[in-house]
Amino acid sequence: MENEVLSIVDKRTGKTYEIPITNGTIRAMDLRKIKTGPDDFGLMTYDPAFMNTASCQSAITFIDGDKGILRYRGYPIDQLAEKCSFLEVAYLVLTGELPTAAQLKDFVTHITYHTMLHETTKHFLEGFRYNAHPMGMFISTVAALSTVYPEAKNVHDPEVRKLQIYRLIGKVPTIAAYTYRHSLGFPYVYPDNDLSYAENFLNMLWKMVEPKYQANPALARALDILFILHADHEQNCSANAMRAVGSSQADPFVSVAAAAAALSGPLHGGANEEVLKMLDEIGSKENIPAYIERVKAGQVKLMGFGHRIYKNYDPRARIIKQAADQVFEVTGKNPKLEIALELERIALQDEYFIKRKLYPNVDFYSGIIYQAMGFKPEIFTVLFAIPRTAGWLAQWQEMLCDPEQKIARPRQIFTGHDVRDFVPIEKRGVREFPAAA
Ligand code: CMC
């Protein structure tokens, strides 16, 4: 469109530049031609934390943060959560379309075929200390798979990529279950390929001496729904890590490990564990007002609240609240739910949260369900990483197949010293370590 142009007048030179606008976006490289002279590098943008910068074009996940909309490949998240299995959604996220019955059967067979870990990987896991955090074990073990499958580095071969995708989606529940069993001191349970993805995961977590583990169908379904809700979430911190690391053509195992490391932080997927710690600290409903005052005074954050993109109720949190009822029918109510509901009620009426558009996010209620299902908080973020592996791999494939993408390499504004002469050691002043930034 003719009008889809941004006119910029550079008052330094008096020159006018016409910058095309596409999809409500200008290309940062178009600014490079805005120069004061031949020696000038050209204009750059400065955007710490990517507050207003699109780093890619993507057709996977759509979010409208103001309206609270989340869709994978065009399908609303609530419809997928109601009607699909997690592997069906993983197929959708990865390929762009829902599978036919035959395609789904084939996909499930491939994933199921790759659930086992090499025995040496099992021994690798045994080397962790008894109290190692499951997320640290998960990240390291996923990275270690890179040594088991060296061909994975052929990232431009679509068949090689497909095989690693099957392997990763197949093996992450096994690794996750083993990290948990390790922390409990229980022997590892081999995958049971007769079971569904969620049932098999529960089998590897909870099976003791019974010959065949039977997961409660309501709990297996609730877990599958939670997996669907966590499958992808466009360009968040971990997807960005996956794309950045993958852009160097590192193999998908180390790239997923990097993404999982990004997920582990308390501001991202680590928030679900932090929510439970917070609810424990609050202890009872009477203590909520005092806790809210601490949040407003900036002493603590209300974990599980707020989002860079959602300025409305996170649609995943809404679906989780519904799934919680089905879980509690089996397990009995988690007493923390009462505290969480009251916390939400008070926060949503408070000017501090209203003004900043802070609503519960996916992590606010997920931990309460996980705990009711019998999980300890240390495993919560690993439960997030299992389904998100499908999303990371979809983002990775899309990045590798995008002819516009190259190795990720941001610019900087250099704020350090100008050139200065070397100072011999005996003439240097005393400085605290670490030196001030
Ligand atoms: N509690 C109290 N105040 C908050 C919170 C919170 N949870 N989140 C944001 N704020 C305040 C923040 O202090 C700031 O206030 P002011 O304008 O006075 O400085 C304002 O709201 C804007 O926040 P921001 O930090 O600029 O927002 P952001 O987009 O950089 O951060 C966030 C987003 C998710 C990191 C942040 O909301 C947060 O730390 N939330 C708690 C951790 C959490 O629940 N993370 C899970 C995110 S959803 C799942 C996932 O993607 O992993």
Topology:
Layout: E1 5-10, E2 15-20, E3 61-64, E4 69-72, E5 75-76, H1 77-83, H2 86-95, H3 101-113, H4 119-126, H5 134-148, H6 158-184, H7 197-206, H8 217-229, H9 237-246, H10 252-263, H11 271-282, H12 288-296, H13 315-331, H14 336-349, H15 351-355, H16 362-372, H17 380-400
Antiparallel strand pairs: 1-2, 3-4, 4-5
Helix pairs in contact: 1-8, 2-8, 2-17, 3-6, 5-6, 5-10, 6-7, 6-17, 7-8, 8-13, 8-17, 9-10, 9-17, 10-17, 11-16, 13-16
Bound molecules: carboxymethyl coenzyme *A (CMC).
Keywords:
two-stranded antiparallel ribbon, binds carboxymethyl coenzyme *A, 437 residues, single chain, mainly alpha
Brief account:
This protein has 437 residues and is mostly helical. Helices cover 49% and strands 5% of the residues. A three-stranded antiparallel sheet has the order 3-4-5. A two-stranded antiparallel sheet has the order 1-2.
Question: Numbering strands along the chain, what is their spatial order in the largest sheet?
Answer: 3-4-5
Radius of gyration, whole Å: 24 Å
Q: Structural class, please? A: mainly alpha
Q: Could you tell me the mean pLDDT?
A: 95
Small-molecule components bound: carboxymethyl coenzyme *A
The portion of residues forming beta strands comes to: 5-15%
Which parts are unreliable, with pLDDT below 50 for 5 consecutive residues or more?
A: none
Biggest β-sheet strands, sense, barrel: 3 strands, antiparallel
Number of helices: 17
Termini distance?
Answer: 47 Å
Total E-strand runs: 5
Helix content: 40-55%
Q: So what's the overall shape? A: globular
Element pattern in H and E: EEEEEHHHHHHHHHHHHHHHHH
